[in-house]
Design goal:
Length: 364
Amino acid sequence: MQATPPIDEDVPEQNGISSALNALMPTSLGGRMALAASVVAATLVIMCIFLISHFVDSTVSRLTTRELTEMARAEGQRVETQISDAMQTAATLDSSIEALIRSGEPDRAEVAEMLFQIVTNEPVLAGAWFGSRPDTFDGRDAIVERDGWLAHPETGHFRPYVYNFGNGAQRHHLSFADAEGAQSDYYRIPLTTGLPYLTNPVPYVIQEQSVLLLSATYPVEHDGEAIGVVGVDIDLTALSDRFANIQPYGDGVIRLISHDQMWAATHERTLLGEPVSADADFWPRGLQGSPPIIPDNVQIIEGQNGLLHLLSPVHVRQYDKPWLVVISVPKATVMADARQIQSVLLYTGRACSSILESGWLSVL
C-alpha cells in the first residue's frame, strides 16, 4: 500500500500570503518600475533624513561648545584681570615698603597712608594691609601709642588695615594674623615660605559685616629675611552675585573655583568658601573620588545627571596655579533646537513616504 504524504497545514496560509503579495504587485512593466522607483526614493529619503539629522546634531553641538567656550573665556578674562591686577598692586606695595625700610627711616604713618590711598582710589579692592613680625618694622612696638591703627591696640605691632565694603575706606588693624586655620593663611603662608601667595576664598566677619575675601599677598623682606606681609583683598561676594545673574541658555549656571578647589563664585551661596566635592559631576573622568587637578585646557564633560559641563582654566599672572570657570547647562536645553529640526525632518519624511505610497497605489 502506498503511504499517504503528510498534509502541511501551513501551506494554505503560505499560499494565502503569497496570493496577497502577488495581488499587490503591479502586473504591468510600468507599475513594476514605479514600485522600484518608490522603494529607491523612500530609501533615499530615509538616508537623507538620517544624514541631515546627524549633521544638525553635530552642528548644534559644535556651535554650543563654541558659544560656551567664548562665554567662559570672557568671564575668565575678567576674573584673571581682576586677580592679576591685585597681585600687581601687592607687588608694588611690597617694593615700596621694602625701599622705605632700606632707607633706614621706616615711617608707620607713611605706610598706612599708602594703604589708605590705594583703597580709596581703587574701588574694586575691598582692602589693603601690612602685617609685620613683632618689633621688626621700626623696633617701637613697646613704646608706640596703641591707637588701633598705627599700632595694634593690644601688642603695639604695626599691622594697619584699610577696608572698603561699600561705605568708603575705613581704618582698622589686622585681627586674624595670629588666628589658626585658613583665616590666617594670608599672613602665615607667605611669611613662612617667603613667596607670593594667593589665598583661597575665606569667609570673615569684620566690623560686624560678613564678607568672602580673596587676598593677594607678598612677603616683605629685609636683609634676606621676611619681616612681614603686605596684601590687598577682593570681595568675592559681589563677583558671586554677578555670576549668579548669568544664566546660559536660560537655565544654565556659571561658577568659579579657586586654585585649591574651593567655591569662589556660585549661585548656591551656602557653598561659598567651601571645598568642591571630589565627586562633583563636572570633574573629568578618572579624577572623581581623588583630589582633582584643574585641567590645563578647555574641556567638555557630559555629566551623568543630564548636564553638559564646560571647564575653562583661568591663568593668573604672577601665580602658577590656575583657577577654573565651570559652565553647566542641561543637555536637553542645548539640543532643543536640534530636536525640533529633527522632528520636522521626521514629519517631512513621513509625508514623502505617504506621497510615494499613494503614487504607487495609483498605478495598481
